[in-house]
């Protein structure tokens, strides 16, 4: 059996089995996981922070596999993996394939994605489709497209048109009741309070299974599983987006190269903060759009 080993942050050597497709029996079902997350005593920052600091890589992998397996049992074909074509999405897709017999994938692209990302997307889609997986690509289909330079003058609006709207349409067309992301709490200042399981939109669950993974652990997992990644990482990028809005990141904040030089620097494109169905469930003040004025494509 093909095995490889990874060094976790606490110094313990952990094993990741490349050939493994079945995980140990699930300890908790979806209802138990939801109950834990919905408990009034649950503090997402503290709970995820503890996992980041104390869990080994293998333990974090087990957490992710448990969440994905339970969600697959609960939602079946109504579960969709969202891919940004970045390193974190690569890890989530691999984890999903280990516990879900035929996961489905949604990709949002824009006219401003780097050519290397577009080429990687086409290779990924062709390969996974050839192996029987449902991988769909969505992009803005409204005419006219945002005027050139909108990413400089109004980056929030640009992201809304080119990323948020296609994601809404994609989730609706694929009948998603649960979508899975590659969010990680250590990526930047905007992602420290996310939960493993969220219901920001009524009837639409968002699952963040790799929330406690660190950047180093993502690369450890990729190396152990021998996964292909976007070639832009070889040039030194740490967080990938549209070409005009992506630069090199310095320091601890992986996302500091996103929208560099703009008020949006290191922030969010909106897919994790904007409403996706028109009926927001959150009371955390994170949604910035007036629902009555927002056009929602279903």
Describe the structure in your own words.
The chain is α/β, with parallel strands linked by helices and 298 residues long. The protein has a single domain, classed as HUPs (Rossmann fold). The protein is 34% helix and 12% strand. The protein contains 8 helices and 8 strands; from the N terminus they run E-E-H-H-H-E-H-E-H-E-H-H-E-E-E-H. The chain has a 6-stranded mixed sheet with strand order 5-4-3-6-8-7. It has a two-stranded antiparallel sheet with strand order 1-2. Helix 3 packs across helix 4 and helix 4 (87-99) crosses helix 8 (215-225). It is globular, with a radius of gyration of 18 Å. The protein starts with a strand and ends in a 73-residue tail after the last helix. Mean pLDDT is 79; it is low at 1-25 and 283-298.
């Amino acid at each position: 059996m093909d095995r490889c080993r990874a060094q976790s942050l606490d110094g313990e050597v952990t094993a990741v089995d490349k050939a493994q497709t079945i995980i140990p029996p699930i300890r908790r079902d979806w209802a138990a996981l939801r109950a834990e997350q919905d408990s009034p005593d649950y503090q997402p920052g503290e709970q995820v922070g503890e996992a980041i600091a104390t869990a080994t890589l293998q333990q974090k992998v087990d957490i992710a596999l448990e969440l994905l397996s339970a969600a697959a049992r609960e939602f079946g074909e109504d579960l969709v993996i969202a891919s940004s074509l970045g390193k974190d999405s690569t890890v989530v897709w691999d984890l999903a394939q280990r516990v879900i017999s035929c996961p489905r994938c949604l990709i949002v692209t824009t006219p401003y994605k780097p050519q290397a990302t577009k080429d990687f997307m086409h290779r990924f889609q062709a390969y996974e489709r050839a192996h029987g997986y449902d991988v769909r690509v969505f992009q803005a289909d409204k005419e006219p497209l945002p005027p050139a330079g909108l990413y400089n003058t109004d980056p929030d609006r640009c992201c809304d048109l080119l990323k948020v709207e296609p994601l809404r349409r994609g989730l609706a067309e694929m009948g998603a009741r649960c979508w899975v992301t590659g969010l990680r709490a250590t990526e930047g200042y905007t992602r420290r309070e996310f939960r493993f399981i969220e219901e920001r939109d009524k009837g639409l669950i968002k699952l963040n299974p790799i929330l406690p993974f660190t950047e180093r652990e993502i690369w450890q997992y990729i190396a152990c599983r021998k996964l292909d990644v976007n070639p832009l990482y070889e040039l030194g990028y740490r967080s990938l987006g549209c070409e005009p809005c992506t630069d090199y990141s310095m320091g601890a904040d992986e996302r500091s190269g996103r929208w560099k030089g703009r008020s949006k620097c290191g922030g969010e494109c909106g897919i994790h903060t904007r409403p996706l169905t028109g009926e927001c469930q959150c009371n955390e003040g994170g949604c910035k759009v007036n629902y009555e004025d927002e056009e929602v494509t279903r």
